[in-house]
Amino acid sequence: MAEVRKIIENRRARHEYHLIATYEAGIALEGMEVKSLRQGNVSLQDSYAKVEDGQIFLYDAHISPYSHAENKGYNPKRKRRLLLHRKEIRRLWGRTQQSGLTLIPTGMHFNEKGIAKVSLSIAKGKHLYDKREDLKKEDIRREMSSISKRME
Fold this sequence. Notes:
It is globular, with a radius of gyration of 18 Å. Strands 1-8-9-2-7-5-4 form a seven-stranded antiparallel β-sheet. It has four helices and nine strands; from the N terminus they run E-H-E-H-E-E-E-E-E-H-E-E-H. Helix content is 32%, strand content 36%. It is α+β, with helices and mostly antiparallel strands and 152 residues long. The protein has helices spanning 11-16, 31-38, 86-96, 128-151, and strands at 5-9, 17-27, 42-43, 48-52, 55-59, 62-63, 80-83, 101-110, 116-125. It has a single domain, classed as Small Protein B, Chain: A (Beta Barrel), CATH 2.40.280.10.
């Protein structure tokens, strides 16, 4: 049985946002985009998802053109449809209507069946002081782990 293979993780999302809830969605891709994903040629920087007309779309996710294909007219940052159940889409639409909440892709992976999936999170932007607090906590955690390693 195959295992879940991580393509990319949006580590910056954890730094920039408070992640409230996470959903897994399929993504509608063209054939050469899947091959490009298998090579890891994707960037989720500055990408976001939005509900439009009862469907969810992923914007500004950059999937580089596949090197062994003819790429005439290919737009690497085109909007891509995300595949979720209608009930989940309604729930996400309701949550994003609250002020300050948005949908951020936190990662992409291939599931056990080899199908590309996107991890979407409902997120609220952090203030500068929240980011500083997280950095302080991370420094303290790192310091404590180094001390405990020296003690052993």
